[in-house]
Amino acid sequence: MFLAAADNAAWCRAVCRLHGAPGRLGPRAWTSGRRTPPLYPDAVTLSPDAVAADVLAGIDTEAAGASVKDSFARLDLAPHGFDMLFEAQWIHRPAHPPAPAPSSDASGGPVWREADGPEEFARWLHAWGDGDGSGPLTPGLLADPAVTVLGGWTAGPGDGGGPVAGVIAHRGEGVAAVGLSNLFAADGCTADAAWAGAVAAVSARFPGLPLVGYEHGPDLAAALRHGFAPAGPLRVWLAR
Hints:
Elements: H1 2-17, E1 24-25, E2 29-31, E3 43-45, H2 52-56, E4 67-70, E5 82-93, H3 104-107, E6 111-114, H4 117-128, E7 147-153, E8 163-170, E9 178-185, H5 191-205, E10 211-215, H6 218-225, E11 229-239
Parallel strand pairs: 3-4, 9-10
Antiparallel strand pairs: 1-2, 2-3, 4-11, 5-10, 5-11, 6-7, 7-8, 8-9
């Protein structure tokens, strides 16, 4: 749980930094005094000892859409004007020898590789669901050495094809794990095929490191089918 929360805070910070909101990293929470981009919290707790003041003092609680990721499901922010948006589970997959990523040559499925430049990243975003590229993820992520954008592609580089599955792998500084986020399946690719390909592709690039993240609902069930185990609850709170 601690590894997953630490990497997730670093990932949120990486995305928010590209939007001019790098925030402040403290001993018990990461917080941003500026509103963060959509889908990204204004604070992430890093310790089960964090209290409401650790997050509320560092964010703009009056801003529409202000949110807090309560990494250890310990906070009660209802008296402070927040409603619980959802609950989820941190997930952890121990390090395993990397399995070969699915290959179109062998199975007819997608080939997993990194997005090659802004044009392929734009196609990755479109497949993920950001049709016009106005969402929180920007091409600046490609220049971040801690970030690897992977897609399961049905066509080769430069031929106009797009991914039918994808994932972002993030290695936070000083964190002995790789965080997975934004995992998706599209255009007829099944969730199980996307999880299998993503796990194999990320494990091949980061051998010897466990994989972490968080999920809920059907995505949590898919993760558990592919070697992950629940590592503890979290909550996301949204200002009224």
